Amino acid sequence: MADPTVAERFPGAPVRGRALPAFLLVGWRWISRNPAVAITPVLLPFIFLYFLSLISPPSLRPLEIVGAMLFTMQNIGSWVLGDSATWRIECSLQDMFVASPLGRIRYLFGIAFSNLIAMLPALAILAALLAWLGRSDGYPLTWYAAGILLGSLVVMWVLFSSIGIAISSRVRSQREIWPVGNLTFTLLGMLSPLYYPVKVLPPLWQDAAHFLPATYAALLVQGALGITPASPAQMALYAGLLGVCAAVGLVITLRLYRWGGL
Description:
- This protein is mainly α and about 260 residues long.
- The chain has helices at about 5-10, 20-35, 35-55, 60-90, 95-100, 105-135, 145-170, 175-190, 205-210, 215-225, 230-255.
- α3 (about 35-55) packs across α6 (about 105-135).
- The longest helix has about 35 residues, at about 105-135.
């Protein structure tokens, strides 16, 4: 005889809930109880931007700000990794979600949304800075460029959140979270030409960077702003390669993503 469903066991209990608003509330409560959470994502890119302003020409400031926004969104993956691994290993909270009607994809987006809340102040400040400096430096943030920037940020958010949760499902102990997360996302962030033009890299490094989706996100936004000239055909190529890299990355991470168990 088949096991009774949740609806059969608890006739009056709801079997469908609003998972994403609940996760958004988790992210908001995290910030409201500890405002330093929202300050940390602001400090890291601004430290990079400050030192880059001392050694790089002013004409690269819009490019560097775009890189800071992409790096901030990429860094969500590290936070998703930490939260998901902690909930699974220390709190055993993931077991409850596995036993519920909530699927692994909705769980992924839930954690990604909760961490996005903490990153929004940093992204808002950087976007305002890009609009201000871009206008003065001759690279205005048009509606077209803003749409390209937003689309690239969304792709980066989904991809690197999935990378974070996939790695977290393979982590065995709390001690592995910090070194594995920092190694993975620092390497991905530093290998991609986010804060500098790809052409300044050595040829071998340029070849390696073209295998990373963040490279095409950066080239796409830089082309939309006019920072690095790109024809419509090149823009379509960058968008296509970003989509291909993101799709390949999502397929790999979803195969690695273990739902349930230790």
